[in-house]
Specification:
This is Putative phospholipid-binding protein MlaC. It comes from Oceanibacterium hippocampi. The chain is α+β, with helices and mostly antiparallel strands. The chain has helices at residues 20-34, 47-64, 70-84, 87-95, 98-101, 104-123, 186-200, 205-216; strands at 4-8, 11-13, 126-128, 132-141, 147-154, 161-170, 173-181, 184-185. The protein has one domain (4-216): Tgt2/MlaC (Nuclear Transport Factor 2, Chain: A, Roll). Helix content is 50%, strand content 23%. The longest helix has 20 residues, at 104-123. Mean pLDDT is 77; it is low at 1-18 and 35-45.
Length: 218
């Protein structure tokens, strides 16, 4: 397994209101995502590690093109999500047990709103960040299910942060299904927050959809 090191002159993610814990975890994951500047995976055999390095390259290119409009940034961000993340699987997972009782119409709307939530929450809320170094340490088998790509964020004013990217093979190629930051799963945290939102709305999936509509409007 190869190590892929890169310097970063990137941007952090500011939080948004609403489902706060999910936003914070998404923010942590996307901060790490954008830290990959000028990465080159040196091992042709380590496709999973190269996949994560490529993600960093594309993300930093998006963030450094200051002349692009908000709509253009959202479109680019949507393309990155499509190319690197399995949002359908993530959507089912974060809705948890409520996915089984949701109607097909509710599932379809949740998929759409969840995607819009991710794009709106983070495509426009990137502030200056610099001095980080992102290292892809390599990939390992994930119990025969896919791959885990291990990486580190070296910070100027703090200890390094470990980030594991969980990848699965899909018909269209490798896709990310979870990001684990210092042992904390982004997907599990989101599921807990969405479940709490549904509970606060009387156990109704429509209550979460209502909140997400408000989050993504405008």
């Amino acid at each position: 397994m190869s190590e892929v090191s890169m310097s970063a002159s990137s941007r952090s993610v500011a939080g948004v209101g609403g489902i706060a814990r999910a936003a914070r975890m998404l923010g942590a994951a996307l901060f790490i995502l954008v830290a990959g500047h000028a990465a080159e995976a040196r091992s042709a055999d380590d496709q999973a590690a190269e996949f994560v390095a490529d993600l960093g390259r594309e993300a930093i290119t998006l963030l450094t093109e200051q002349e692009r409009s908000t709509d253009e940034r959202r479109a680019d961000f949507d393309r990155i999500l499509t190319s690197y993340f399995d949002l359908d699987s993530i959507s089912r997972f974060v809705l948890g047990r409520h996915w089984r009782v949701a109607t097909e119409a509710q599932r379809d709307e949740f998929r759409t709103l969840f995607r819009q939530f991710v794009i709106k929450a983070y495509a426009e809320r990137l502030s200056a960040y610099s001095g980080e170094e992102f290292t892809v340490k390599g990939a390992r088998d994930d119990n025969g299910k896919g791959y885990i790509v291990e990486s580190r964020i070296e910070r100027q004013n703090g200890p390094p942060v470990r980030v594991d990217w969980r990848l699965r093979e899909r018909d269209e190629g490798l896709r990310i299904v979870d990001v684990v930051v210092e042992g904390v799963s982004m997907a599990i945290t989101q599921r807990a927050d969405f479940n709490a939102a549904i509970a606060a709305e009387g156990g109704k999936v429509d209550g979460l959809l209502k909140r997400l509509r408000a989050q993504t409007s405008g």
